[in-house]
Amino acid sequence: MNAVARGDLYARLGSARGLRVQTVYLAVCSAFLLLSLPPELGRLDVRDANLLLAFLAVQVVAVTYLCSATASAEIALEGEKGLPDLALSAFPTAVIVSGKVVSSALYAIYLVLIAMPLFVLAAALRGAPVAPIGLSAGLVVPLGTAAGVWGTWLGGRLASDFTRSLAHWVLLVVAFGGTALLPAAWWPLNPIRLIDRLVRDGPTPWLAAVAAGWAAVAAAGAWLCARYLGYARAGEVGA
Amino acid sequence: MATGAALALILLLAVPAMAQGPELALVEVGFAGFARPGAWTPVWVDVTAAGRDLDATVVVEAPSPLGQPVVRFATPVRAAAGARVRVFVPATFLDARTPGTVALEDRGRRLAAVAVPRLRPVEQLALVLSDEPLSLEAAAARADGLEVAYLQAERLPPVWQAYETVRVLVVRTFDDRRVDDRQRIAIREWLQAGGRVVLMPAGDDLRHLRGPTFAPLRAAAATGLGRGRLIVWTDDAAHPALRASPALDRGWDAVLAAAPVPATPVLEATLPAGRPVPLPVYAAIGALVALYVVAVRWTSRRLAALRWPAVAVWLVLVAAATVGAGQVAVRARAEASGVVSAAVVEAIPGSGHGLLWVAGRTISSHGGAFAVSLAPGVLVRPTPPASLDVVWADGVTLVGRGAAVGFFGSGLVPAPITGTVTARGDAIQVANASGRVLERAWVFRAGRVHALPPVGERLELSLDETRWQPHERLQRAEGHALLTWAFSRLDGDAILKATPAWLVGWWRDPSLALRWDGRLQTPQQLVLVPLATRP
Q1: pLDDT tens digits for A98-154?
Q2: Yes or no, beta carbons of A40 and B276 under 8 Å apart
Q3: Which residues of chain B have a CB within 8 Å of the CB of A117?
Q4: Contact A125 B297 (CB under 8 A)
Q5: Can you say how many angstroms the Cα of residue A43 is from the centroid of all Cα atoms in its chain?
Q6: Which domains does chain B have, with CATH numbers?
Q7: What pLDDT does B16 receive?
């Protein structure tokens, strides 16, 4: 496997802070699960579809944040190398960029998979269909990958922690809040609206289109990372 | 050439016969077309199995006036090829203008269907078996909401609950050979439950009074027919000399006045709104989740090295955890779902039986499919109407989907328990041949209750004047909605108030168990026994 990706994943899955991040993520999902248990059978205040939507909305936000935050060093993990460090290494640019893309994608897949039993338990307890959980993964993984790659670029491009965090949160707000403000015809661009549609109506062709769109966003981020590495190695960082 | 032509001819003749499907013909709906919306109504259909043996279901679809929900009343039917069978289906119709359809279905596939003609809505009926008019119409007109329907004996329903609309059954012309045992039993049970039957000769024909249907009832009437009443007229009301007589009018008025409308109890309000999820379920799910989080942490360290065997094992573990979570959820859901019900047995003096009223509601964590079966002899309908199948075979099975689907049923069940109380209320005697112990029992008398020890086969007890207490105080202490309902009914119902003292208690009759998705639930029944007064 790509050495850069291997190093990133080792830090995210094996480091003490990486383990804490996972535990918090699972704790949030578990809390949702336990709080969603009905106090009395036959008296359900939350409809099954709404409950599943709430679960998946939390997941898409959490995975997107964790992918970008770990990549941008907002959550600094011992052993994970950012672009400035890697620019000084002997790895070719293509290896670094592809490694960052692969590590972001695999981390997103990992986060989706470890939450799967909890979501299946929550949905099946209420008899809600479990298919939307799998379908939403088709959106969460490319979105998390794109967030991770753009987080990587932010981690290299912006040296100031404050500026980097601000830019990181602006990007997240644009991805979730900004797209919600678009006209109704643009609904697939908002991840929550798309998941809502998946939960209520099942598979839609928009899922593939939007997933491809986020993959393109990830590719654009990868191009920016490669460009940054080029500048950094040429000693033109900040230009 | 000739052989080929012959084969072709045989094929041509055979194909229509093979293609001919079963036939369905509506014989009668209601009593001569009369029916009360929402009440049990008899539906008779003829099914002819043409071509091949038939193993299907007759389904009566009764939509509400708005089109939804549609209650489906179903009865299985089997017939050999070429045979015709008459099928009875008890149903309740919700809309007299467009009552619905009767269909023949085979595993969901519709083989034939016929629309039910418009019904004549009625509040109550005087049912007459006579080949001549009996001049009952004038008296019926004086009784509010009462109509007269002339019927043939073979159309009498085989379940007593289907007499729900009938205030009185008048029998003048009756051929015993045209009814079967089920119809005879239904008449007897309806009498025990409070029905009224008037018997009279048809001219000089007295055979039906001595036949196997009514002779045993006439003999039993001497010792009591439960709540019902069998009235025997010695004169033929169709006799020309009597037909215009004022005496006949007075006679009919007396018969109709002596048939009070029995009030159907409303038990729905006594049902609990839900069923709390047991604390162990929370604890078990919490423990499983915590275990899973720890397992993920543990495996994550080993996965970090990204060696393929570790990755493969991790993937298998996550897949197993996902499948296991689904199975745990399905199991927990099935275990936690069920029916809440309230059942009352009101003993009928002198009959050894009791009237059973049962109300229930499905409690389901998921709103999924369910099947609820009740004891044989108990007829059940959804209240309020809901889209589900009421399958009537040996007993009734409700098949549907969703939570909070309510139902109400009635039946006549063995309740051989009698008792007496002294006029001064200072002693009680109970004989209980049911084989079940009446637990947490009380004597109810004049708005006060006196606690009793568990009532086994016999109980003889002096009642302590100081231990009587107002029933309201007991209700507060017990906190049981059904008990509150029972005391207010005994205190307020005009017919029940005529009995000054009652024995009230709980027993658990396994034969009245509900079967929910294959699992038995045996709820307690509240038993009400009228106590005779002795000096």
Answers
A1: 999 999 999 999 999 999 999 898 888 777 788 889 899 999 999 999 999 999 999
A2: yes
A3: 292, 318, 321-322, 324-325
A4: no
A5: 35
A6: 19-120 (2.60.40.10), 124-257 (3.40.50), 414-534 (no CATH)
A7: 45
